[in-house]
Specification:
The chain is of the alpha/beta class. The protein contains 7 helices and 5 strands, in the order H-H-E-H-E-H-E-H-E-H-E-H.
């Protein structure tokens, strides 16, 4: 690789600061990390319903305390009827290798619901050292 090619690559690997600011502002509006969710739960300041969108079997094997099992394929208007229109949702799945939380967030957003994705999912939760609880599936 020539030095001109390397210089071109190096020049183009960073977005202008305004573009980067807009990108990260957008991410922070739709994502929340495990640490922040843990702190909100610990302080009992959630203001949201935490949805574990994995299968009932995976939920039963271990989930974040106070999460509700709601597999992403079951998210529809009828199944959300008992949640008032302004309910805020935080969704998570297994982890970065899984797009179940993205599917759930998209379904919720298309239904006009307020939603954030907990990045890292269960795997991120465990990496942070936070415990999971095991229980019977709720659904």
């Amino acid at each position: 690789m020539t030095s001109a090619m390397l210089a071109s690559i190096a020049e183009n690997i960073f977005a202008p600061s305004e573009e980067a600011a807009a990108h990260f502002d957008r991410l922070l509006r739709v994502e929340i990390d495990c640490w922040d969710v843990h702190e909100l739960l610990k302080a009992d300041q959630t203001g949201f319903v935490l949805l574990d969108v994995r299968s009932p079997a995976m939920f039963a094997a271990g989930h974040v305390d106070r999460a509700v099992n709601f597999p992403h394929g079951k998210i529809n208007e009828r199944n959300l009827a008992h949640y008032p229109a302004g309910t805020r949702f935080v969704v998570y799945c297994s982890g970065p290798h899984c797009n179940g939380a993205d599917k759930a967030a998209l379904r919720l957003a298309r239904l006009g619901r307020l939603v954030k994705k907990m990045i890292g999912g269960v795997e991120g939760w465990k990496v942070e050292g936070f415990p999971l609880v095991a229980a019977s599936p709720a659904r």
